[in-house]
Amino acid sequence: MSTAQQKIVNNFHSNEECPITAAIDVIGGKWKSPLIWLLLKGPMRFGELHKTMPGMALKVLSRQLKELEADGIVIRKAYPEVPPRVEYSLSEKGQSLWDVMSLLSEWSRKNLMGV
Questions:
Q1: φ and ψ at 36, to 5 degrees?
Q2: CB 73 within 8 A of CB 27
Q3: What values do phi and psi take at 82, rounded to 5?
Q4: Distance of CA 73 to the CA centre of its chain
Q5: Alpha carbons 73 and 94: distance in angstroms, whole number
Q6: Which pLDDT belongs to residue 95?
Q7: What is the 8-class DSSP label of residue 77?
Q8: With left for phi above 0 and alpha for psi between -120 and 50, is residue 61 left, alpha or beta?
Q9: Strand 74-79's sheet: what is its strand order?
């Protein structure tokens, strides 16, 4: 570990001070990362998201999207139409997760999936 890396690690003495913990609080859990992964491809409607995640209850999907929206990761756009149409997309902050998600995907393929 380089001196610069050691200084960064030494600045965080407990779990509460770890910047990774803060990130995991926002994008962690069973459903948030897959939702972000899907939205990296572009905007999707609520029904599309639900169809691509068949094991996820509608109530859970709604709650996860609201949490991601509250954290500034997802943007919800409602169109004044009948029937109502709602689209979800990643905010600029959400788009900034591209590199992190790509690295995690690559790490997972190499170390967990054996691909």
A1: -60, -45
A2: yes
A3: -120, 120
A4: 7
A5: 4
A6: 96
A7: E
A8: alpha
A9: 44-45, 85-90, 74-79
Q: What tokens appear for 28 in the block?
A: 């962690």
pLDDT in tens, 64-114: 999 999 999 999 999 998 988 999 999 999 999 999 999 989 999 999 887
Distance, CA of 46 to CA of 44 (rounded, Å): 7
Contact 84, 76 (CB under 8 A): no
Instruction: Reply yes or no: is the peptide bond before residue 83 cis, omega within 30 of 0.
Output: yes
3-state DSSP assignment of residue 76:
strand
* pTM, entire model: 0.79
